Structures are given as C-alpha cells and as structure tokens.
Amino acid sequence: MDIFAPIQWLADWLAYSVLNIIKDTPIGNTVNFFIYDSIKIILLLAVIIFVISYIRSFFPAEKTKKFLSKAKFPILNNLLAALIGIVTPFCSCSAVPLFIGFVEAGVPLGVTFSFLISAPMVNEIALVLLWGLFGWKIALIYIISGVIIATIAGWIIGKLKLEKWVEEFVYKIKSVEADEKKQTVKDRIDYAKKYTISIVKSVWPYILIGVGLGALMHGYAPNDLLIKYAGPNNFFAVPLAVLIGIPLYSNAAGTIPIVSVLIDKGMAMGTALAFMMAVTALSLPEFIILKKVLKPKLIIVYASIVGAGIIFTGYLFNLLI
Amino acid sequence: MKISVLGSGCATCKKLYETVEYVVKKEGIDATVEYSDDVRKIVELGLMRSPVLVINGKPVDLQSTSEKDVKNAICSGNC
Fold first, then answer.
1. What pLDDT score was predicted for residue A171?
2. Nearest residue, CB atoms, A97 vs list B39, B63, B66
3. Coil, strand, or helix at residue B45?
4. Residues 6 or more apart in contact with residue B19 via CB below 8 angstroms
5. A-chain residue closest to B58, CA distance
6. CB-CB neighbors (< 8 A) of B35 in chain A
7. What is the CA radius of gyration of chain B?
8. How many Cα atoms are found within 13 Å in the side-chain-facing hemisphere of B11?
9. Can you tell me the mean pLDDT for B50-62?
10. Which of A175, A177, A197 to mutate to test the interface with B (most CBs of B within 10 A)?
C-alpha cells in the first residue's frame, strides 16, 4: 500500500470538493499536484530531519575527527568519512573550520575530502525530496552513488599527495581539546526538535515555489517537451546539467521539485541525478570560502574529480534506468 | 561584558553579528561586540563549526541564531 495514500485523498478532497475544481483538467491537475506534493514533502521533511538530527547528536564533529584520525585502513577510512558525512549537518559556513580541525587532528587530507564531499551532497533535504518525489529506490541510488563518489574522489586526492596545496597556516594551528558534553535523551530530542523546526522554517518557501512551478508545468507543459534536449539520446546533456548545477547551491530545496517535473517532461533520470548532485556538491560559494585554506590549484583538482565522478554517474544511470 | 562573533565570512556569520548588536542595543546591555572572520580563532578554541558566539572568552552553545536564542545566550535569563 502507498503510505502517502491519505495525503492523496486529502489533496483530492481539497482540490475537487472544497475548491470545487473540475477533475482531469489542466487546472485540476495543477492544483491537486501542488497540494499533494507540498503536504507530502513538508511532512517527510519534518519526520526525516527529526530522525537524522537525533542520530547526528551522537556524532559531533569533535568526536568524528578523533575517530577518523585513528582509523588505519586506506580506502575504508574514506568510506567511513563519507558515511559519517551523511548524518553531519553542513553549511558552507562550517566547511573551513571543519577542514582545519580535521587536518590539525591528523586526519589524512584524502579522508578529510571524502567527508567534505559527502556532507553537503548526501544531505537530508535532498534525501527527503528525492524520496517524496521519486520514491525510495531513487533516493537510495542517490545516497549510494554519493557515498561512492565521495569515497573514491577522496581516495584519489589522498593518492595525489596534494598536502603542499593547502595553505601553510593550517598546519601551524594548535587547538585545545573541547570538552564533550554529556547529553541525555531529552537533550537530544530537544536538539532534534529545534533543528527540525529551524530547517522546515527556512526551506518551506523554496519548496512551495519549487512545487508550484513544478505543478504549473505538470498541468500545462507538453509531456515530451524536453526529450530532444535532455533525453537519454543527447550526449551533452549530462555535462551541461552539471555545469548549470554549480551556481545553484542555495536553492537545493527549490531545485529538486522542479527537476521532478523536468523528468516528467522527458529529462533522463541519470541527467537529473547528475544535476542534483552538482547543485549540492559543487557549490561556487563554498569554493570561495574554501579559498581561505586551499590553494586554487587544489580547489580545481577537487572540483574536477568530483565533477568527473558526477558526470560518470549520470551516464551510468542513463544507461541503466 | 565582552562578546565576540567568530565566523568564516559567510552570510549566517554576519547575520549573527547583526542580531547580537541588535539584542545588546535593545536590552541596553553593557557590552562590547566584535566580529572576526579569522577561522584560526575558532579552531584554537577546539571547535569546528561557524559562527561561534564567545562571551568573556568562553564559547557559548547557541540553539539557533534567532533573536530569542541569542538573547537567552547573552543574558542567561537575566533580562
């Protein structure tokens, strides 16, 4: 059974009985789609962010860095770092202190990068939107490919021995040990509740705008609109989607609902996944902030390896799905 | 009281600085407020997040950067 069936029922009732719009007309489809998707996504967002931030309270960055600096198995460390990145809160504000903190604690550069790539790319907002709009299979595929890209890209950066392209001052900083707070279950729940409220509060307008635009296109744009440009047969669609995704970071919450409609109108799944990964993992504002600690050469290497990984994933899923 | 906002130059950091200044002024708190975007200071405190609110040399736990939570952190219940 579809667990979202009650929401569909509610959307049908609101659109066709309360608002009295005729079913199976463009406007009927648009309104129904808008109500259904917005309620579903906002509910999912609240539930999943609550669960993830509860789990997260067990992995403060200070503990993660200690743990990763002790791990000894080459590529497994990268995988671990990428997995921890899934539950870690990430805003580009914290990228620089995280980076310095990791390097200073003796976490290898490549492992640090695996974490830095996975944390923003595999985040709970992307997960919710993918699950809500495309189903859990696509959400799972996204997470697994994200973790694999972060693991391999970090491992390659580690192999290249690029420590010399990190600004020298990073290695000279000495930090004190911050004392870890003891947290009770109530503290964790409080934290998860506050965090959930603040995220839902900050992203709901984007979601409504994204879903609204999506709903309009769902109702009015022809179904094969994008086949020619972004369908599986256009070889250049994947790299182009990645390039367009780079400056779009801040609107990840609004981008994914629109992407769902682009798929509806003929964009290939792999191209769409590549686009979403580029939106979240390759962000221009983050590169600018990282320039404080990384020499431009290293930022270019990092962006190119991650970009190549995303493009590869895009082609792969265009072939498979 | 000496309040510092340590950030990495990002938008949220500047927003926190503005909120702190606003709260201090509104509540008539006797405090100097400074802003720094030198990330070293954050790491030297053993922290790995940004922005950080520091009161009299001690980093404070902020639930969020909303006006209410900033006020709670600064006054610790005294205003």
1. 85
2. B39
3. coil
4. B65, B66, B67, B70
5. A178
6. none
7. 11
8. 6
9. 86
10. A175
The per-residue DSSP string of A106-135 comes to T--HHHHHHHHHHHHHS-HHHHHHHHHHH-
For residue A146, what are its two tokens? 């994200």
Four-residue CA torsion sign, A255, A258, A264, A268: negative
Nearest CA in chain A to B11: A93
Q: Do A96 and B50 make contact, defined as CB atoms within 8 angstroms?
A: yes
Compute mean pLDDT per 10 residues along chain A, 321 residues long, and list them: 80 84 81 87 89 86 82 84 82 81 89 90 81 84 92 94 88 74 85 87 84 80 70 83 78 73 83 87 83 91 92 89 73
Please report the ipTM that was assigned to this predicted complex: 0.81
Give the DSSP per-residue string, A156-169: HHHHTT-GGGB-TH
With contact defined as beta carbons under 8 Å apart, do A143 and A118 qualify? no
Distance from CA of A292 to the nearest CA of B (A): 9
Give the pLDDT score at B8: 81
Helical (H) or strand (E) element with B2:
strand B2-6
**Distance separating alpha carbons of residues A129 and A257, to the nearest angstrom:** 7
Angle at A255 between CA A2 and CA A246, to 5 degrees: 135
pLDDT reported for residue A178: 65
Hey, is B6 helix, strand or coil?
strand
First to last CA, chain A: 24
Name the one residue in this structure whose structure tokens are 């709260």.
B23
B40 min Cα distance to partner chain A (Å): 7
**CB contact (8 A) between residue A94 and residue B63:** no
Specify the CATH number for the domain of residue B16: 3.40.30.10
Best residue of B39, B44, B63 to probe chain A, by most A CBs closer than 10 Å: B39
State whether residue A91 is helix, strand or coil.
coil
Could you list the residue range(s) of the whole structural domain that residue B6 is in?
Answer: 2-75
**Total tally of structural domains belonging to chain B:** 1
What is the rounded CA–CA span in Å between residue A308 and residue A318?
A: 15
